[in-house]
Input
Amino acid sequence: MRLRTDDDIYRARLVYLGPPGYTLPVHLPYAQYGVFMLLVPFYMFIHWLFTFTVEFFPAWEISLAIVTTSFIFRYVDPDRPARMVIRTALTDWRRTREPATEQRDPRLVATRIRVREELV
Output
């Protein structure tokens, strides 16, 4: 049995249903439309960098933007907004690689202790 939460902010979703009188078949939050609209030109720019051409209908770029948007919003919830998911993915992608060989930590052992009367 699922209990409804008391907090209305967790149940409220800003969803675009479509123009008046014509409901869209999918109900997506406004944030997904925004991320999608940012990703399509980004993928078009990457395509342009490789080929120096711009297509009339960028099918591959739109499909990549749909997949990327759905992957991002798989991890989004009321406690973790989309910008934090993207930031976490970018920092984890750069920093979580383990070294190929095992490295030993340096030993910090005092072998000799000097006591001086005056500071140098």
User: Anything to note?
Assistant: The mean pLDDT is 84. Strands lie at 15-16, 28-29.
